[in-house]
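To whoever is covering the structure queue this week,

Two jobs came back overnight. Logging them here so there's a record in the thread.

Job A:
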Amino acid sequence: MKTVRVKIDPNALASLPKGRVDKSRLDRTSERDLFAQQNADDAEAMKDVAKFARRVRKRLGLSQLEFSHQIDVPLETIRNWEQGKRCPTGAAKALLKVLEKVPEAALSALG
Protein backbone atom coordinates (compact mmCIF):
# COMPACT_ATOMS: atom_id res chain seq x y z
CA MET A 1 0.00 0.00 0.00
CA LYS A 2 1.31 3.41 -0.94
CA THR A 3 1.49 6.11 1.74
CA VAL A 4 0.68 9.64 0.68
CA ARG A 5 1.45 12.52 3.01
CA VAL A 6 -0.76 15.57 2.74
CA LYS A 7 -0.09 18.88 4.45
CA ILE A 8 -3.32 20.49 5.56
CA ASP A 9 -3.87 24.10 6.47
CA PRO A 10 -7.18 24.19 8.38
CA ASN A 11 -7.54 27.90 7.59
CA ALA A 12 -7.42 27.27 3.83
CA LEU A 13 -10.35 25.06 2.87
CA ALA A 14 -8.96 24.63 -0.63
CA SER A 15 -5.99 22.74 0.87
CA LEU A 16 -8.24 20.02 2.28
CA PRO A 17 -8.10 16.78 0.28
CA LYS A 18 -11.16 15.78 -1.67
CA GLY A 19 -12.93 12.91 0.05
CA ARG A 20 -15.29 10.25 -1.16
CA VAL A 21 -18.45 11.51 0.48
CA ASP A 22 -21.83 10.70 -1.00
CA LYS A 23 -23.63 13.91 -0.07
CA SER A 24 -27.03 12.67 -1.23
CA ARG A 25 -26.68 9.62 1.00
CA LEU A 26 -25.69 11.83 3.93
CA ASP A 27 -28.72 14.01 3.33
CA ARG A 28 -30.99 10.95 3.29
CA THR A 29 -29.58 9.61 6.58
CA SER A 30 -32.05 10.03 9.42
CA GLU A 31 -31.56 9.97 13.18
CA ARG A 32 -33.17 6.52 13.13
CA ASP A 33 -30.52 5.30 10.66
CA LEU A 34 -27.74 6.70 12.85
CA PHE A 35 -29.22 5.01 15.94
CA ALA A 36 -29.52 1.68 14.11
CA GLN A 37 -25.90 1.89 12.93
CA GLN A 38 -24.71 2.76 16.43
CA ASN A 39 -26.54 -0.28 17.82
CA ALA A 40 -24.99 -2.49 15.14
CA ASP A 41 -21.52 -1.12 15.94
CA ASP A 42 -22.06 -1.70 19.66
CA ALA A 43 -23.21 -5.28 19.01
CA GLU A 44 -20.09 -5.94 16.92
CA ALA A 45 -17.86 -4.55 19.68
CA MET A 46 -19.56 -6.82 22.23
CA LYS A 47 -18.80 -9.83 20.01
CA ASP A 48 -15.12 -8.86 20.00
CA VAL A 49 -15.07 -8.60 23.80
CA ALA A 50 -16.86 -11.94 24.09
CA LYS A 51 -14.26 -13.58 21.85
CA PHE A 52 -11.45 -12.03 23.91
CA ALA A 53 -12.88 -13.26 27.24
CA ARG A 54 -13.45 -16.75 25.83
CA ARG A 55 -9.95 -16.86 24.30
CA VAL A 56 -8.30 -15.91 27.60
CA ARG A 57 -10.24 -18.60 29.48
CA LYS A 58 -9.54 -21.29 26.88
CA ARG A 59 -5.86 -20.37 26.75
CA LEU A 60 -5.73 -21.13 30.47
CA GLY A 61 -7.42 -24.47 29.81
CA LEU A 62 -10.20 -23.79 32.30
CA SER A 63 -13.92 -24.40 32.20
CA GLN A 64 -16.20 -21.45 32.86
CA LEU A 65 -16.77 -22.70 36.41
CA GLU A 66 -13.04 -23.18 37.10
CA PHE A 67 -12.27 -19.78 35.59
CA SER A 68 -14.91 -18.08 37.73
CA HIS A 69 -13.41 -19.63 40.87
CA GLN A 70 -9.85 -18.69 39.86
CA ILE A 71 -10.63 -15.01 39.32
CA ASP A 72 -13.36 -14.82 42.00
CA VAL A 73 -16.11 -13.70 39.63
CA PRO A 74 -19.60 -15.23 39.57
CA LEU A 75 -20.13 -17.93 36.94
CA GLU A 76 -23.06 -15.99 35.50
CA THR A 77 -20.76 -13.02 34.87
CA ILE A 78 -18.32 -15.20 32.91
CA ARG A 79 -21.20 -16.55 30.85
CA ASN A 80 -22.53 -13.07 30.17
CA TRP A 81 -19.07 -11.92 29.04
CA GLU A 82 -18.64 -14.87 26.69
CA GLN A 83 -22.14 -14.56 25.25
CA GLY A 84 -21.70 -10.85 24.64
CA LYS A 85 -24.49 -9.87 27.01
CA ARG A 86 -22.14 -7.91 29.26
CA CYS A 87 -18.73 -6.34 28.80
CA PRO A 88 -15.95 -6.56 31.39
CA THR A 89 -15.01 -3.09 32.54
CA GLY A 90 -12.41 -1.50 34.76
CA ALA A 91 -10.52 -3.96 36.91
CA ALA A 92 -12.08 -7.00 35.20
CA LYS A 93 -10.88 -5.83 31.79
CA ALA A 94 -7.40 -5.16 33.19
CA LEU A 95 -7.34 -8.59 34.81
CA LEU A 96 -8.23 -10.27 31.50
CA LYS A 97 -5.40 -8.40 29.78
CA VAL A 98 -2.93 -9.50 32.46
CA LEU A 99 -4.20 -13.08 32.27
CA GLU A 100 -3.64 -12.99 28.52
CA LYS A 101 -0.06 -11.67 28.76
CA VAL A 102 1.33 -13.37 31.90
CA PRO A 103 -1.18 -16.03 32.97
CA GLU A 104 1.08 -17.88 35.42
CA ALA A 105 1.99 -14.73 37.36
CA ALA A 106 -1.62 -13.51 37.40
CA LEU A 107 -3.01 -16.83 38.59
CA SER A 108 -0.34 -17.19 41.28
CA ALA A 109 -1.10 -13.66 42.51
CA LEU A 110 -4.81 -14.48 42.65
CA GLY A 111 -4.33 -17.85 44.31
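Job B:
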Amino acid sequence: MKFNTQQAPPVGFQLAPMIDIIFLLLAFFIVTYQMTDNEKVMEISLPAASEGKAKQRDNLEKVINIHADGSIVIDQKPYTLDELQEKMGNLVRVNKSQPVRVRGDEKTEYKHIVDVINRCSRAGIWNISFATGTPKKKPEN
Protein backbone atom coordinates (compact mmCIF):
# COMPACT_ATOMS: atom_id res chain seq x y z
CA MET A 1 0.00 0.00 0.00
CA LYS A 2 1.40 3.34 -0.98
CA PHE A 3 0.80 6.36 1.27
CA ASN A 4 0.88 9.81 -0.12
CA THR A 5 3.08 11.84 2.24
CA GLN A 6 2.75 15.51 1.63
CA GLN A 7 4.67 17.87 3.78
CA ALA A 8 3.18 21.22 4.63
CA PRO A 9 5.09 24.18 3.30
CA PRO A 10 7.37 25.78 5.91
CA VAL A 11 5.72 28.49 7.96
CA GLY A 12 7.12 31.92 7.19
CA PHE A 13 7.70 34.68 9.69
CA GLN A 14 4.51 36.71 10.02
CA LEU A 15 5.44 40.38 9.97
CA ALA A 16 1.97 41.99 10.13
CA PRO A 17 1.16 40.94 13.75
CA MET A 18 4.62 42.06 14.86
CA ILE A 19 4.06 45.51 13.33
CA ASP A 20 0.64 45.74 15.01
CA ILE A 21 2.15 45.04 18.42
CA ILE A 22 4.94 47.57 17.91
CA PHE A 23 2.45 50.30 16.96
CA LEU A 24 0.25 49.49 19.98
CA LEU A 25 3.24 49.75 22.31
CA LEU A 26 4.31 53.00 20.68
CA ALA A 27 0.81 54.48 21.06
CA PHE A 28 0.68 53.38 24.71
CA PHE A 29 3.97 55.06 25.60
CA ILE A 30 3.09 58.27 23.75
CA VAL A 31 -0.25 58.56 25.57
CA THR A 32 1.21 57.86 29.02
CA TYR A 33 4.04 60.33 28.43
CA GLN A 34 1.54 63.04 27.49
CA MET A 35 -0.53 62.37 30.62
CA THR A 36 2.40 62.77 32.99
CA ASP A 37 3.65 65.82 31.13
CA ASN A 38 0.35 67.65 31.65
CA GLU A 39 0.76 67.47 35.42
CA LYS A 40 3.92 69.54 35.47
CA VAL A 41 2.98 73.19 35.22
CA MET A 42 6.07 75.07 34.17
CA GLU A 43 5.05 78.42 35.69
CA ILE A 44 5.64 77.03 39.17
CA SER A 45 9.08 77.52 40.66
CA LEU A 46 9.51 74.76 43.24
CA PRO A 47 11.44 75.46 46.44
CA ALA A 48 14.77 73.65 46.58
CA ALA A 49 15.60 71.00 49.18
CA SER A 50 19.11 69.70 49.67
CA GLU A 51 17.97 66.70 51.74
CA GLY A 52 15.64 63.87 50.80
CA LYS A 53 15.40 61.80 47.69
CA ALA A 54 13.03 61.57 44.77
CA LYS A 55 10.04 59.37 45.48
CA GLN A 56 8.81 57.00 42.80
CA ARG A 57 5.55 58.37 41.46
CA ASP A 58 2.39 56.33 41.67
CA ASN A 59 0.29 55.99 38.49
CA LEU A 60 -2.85 57.10 40.33
CA GLU A 61 -1.19 60.07 42.00
CA LYS A 62 -2.94 63.42 41.49
CA VAL A 63 -0.76 66.51 41.33
CA ILE A 64 -2.16 69.71 42.85
CA ASN A 65 -0.34 72.81 41.59
CA ILE A 66 -0.59 75.96 43.74
CA HIS A 67 0.54 79.17 42.07
CA ALA A 68 2.10 82.11 43.90
CA ASP A 69 -1.28 83.92 43.95
CA GLY A 70 -2.94 80.91 45.62
CA SER A 71 -4.78 79.63 42.54
CA ILE A 72 -5.15 75.85 42.36
CA VAL A 73 -4.65 73.87 39.14
CA ILE A 74 -5.12 70.14 38.58
CA ASP A 75 -4.61 68.66 35.09
CA GLN A 76 -4.37 72.20 33.66
CA LYS A 77 -7.84 73.08 35.00
CA PRO A 78 -8.33 75.74 37.70
CA TYR A 79 -10.21 74.77 40.88
CA THR A 80 -11.64 76.61 43.84
CA LEU A 81 -11.20 75.14 47.33
CA ASP A 82 -14.76 73.79 47.30
CA GLU A 83 -14.27 72.19 43.87
CA LEU A 84 -10.96 70.74 45.06
CA GLN A 85 -12.63 69.14 48.09
CA GLU A 86 -15.37 67.69 45.88
CA LYS A 87 -12.86 66.27 43.38
CA MET A 88 -10.71 64.75 46.12
CA GLY A 89 -13.83 63.25 47.73
CA ASN A 90 -14.75 61.60 44.43
CA LEU A 91 -11.23 60.19 44.11
CA VAL A 92 -11.31 58.80 47.67
CA ARG A 93 -14.57 56.98 46.94
CA VAL A 94 -12.74 55.05 44.22
CA ASN A 95 -9.36 54.65 45.96
CA LYS A 96 -9.22 54.88 49.77
CA SER A 97 -5.45 55.50 49.75
CA GLN A 98 -5.48 58.05 46.90
CA PRO A 99 -1.99 59.60 46.68
CA VAL A 100 -1.72 63.36 46.18
CA ARG A 101 1.37 65.45 45.46
CA VAL A 102 1.30 69.16 46.29
CA ARG A 103 3.45 71.37 44.03
CA GLY A 104 3.50 74.82 45.57
CA ASP A 105 5.37 77.74 44.09
CA GLU A 106 8.21 78.94 46.31
CA LYS A 107 6.49 82.34 46.58
CA THR A 108 3.14 80.86 47.63
CA GLU A 109 1.96 81.99 51.03
CA TYR A 110 1.87 79.19 53.57
CA LYS A 111 -1.84 79.70 54.25
CA HIS A 112 -2.66 78.61 50.66
CA ILE A 113 -0.78 75.34 51.18
CA VAL A 114 -2.54 74.76 54.51
CA ASP A 115 -5.94 75.48 52.91
CA VAL A 116 -5.30 72.83 50.26
CA ILE A 117 -4.12 70.29 52.86
CA ASN A 118 -7.19 70.98 55.02
CA ARG A 119 -9.55 70.48 52.09
CA CYS A 120 -7.79 67.26 51.11
CA SER A 121 -8.05 66.01 54.71
CA ARG A 122 -11.76 66.83 54.85
CA ALA A 123 -12.23 64.82 51.67
CA GLY A 124 -10.45 61.83 53.22
CA ILE A 125 -7.02 62.16 51.60
CA TRP A 126 -4.23 61.09 53.94
CA ASN A 127 -1.49 60.13 51.45
CA ILE A 128 0.00 63.59 50.72
CA SER A 129 3.53 64.33 49.55
CA PHE A 130 5.23 67.57 48.57
CA ALA A 131 7.27 68.29 45.46
CA THR A 132 10.57 70.11 45.77
CA GLY A 133 13.30 70.97 43.33
CA THR A 134 16.98 70.21 43.53
CA PRO A 135 19.26 73.04 44.64
CA LYS A 136 21.18 74.77 41.89
CA LYS A 137 24.89 74.14 41.98
CA LYS A 138 27.02 77.15 42.74
CA PRO A 139 29.57 77.93 40.04
CA GLU A 140 33.07 76.99 41.06
CA ASN A 141 35.72 79.71 41.00
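Note for Job B: The radius of gyration is 25 Å.

Please reply-all if you pick these up so we don't duplicate work.
Q.
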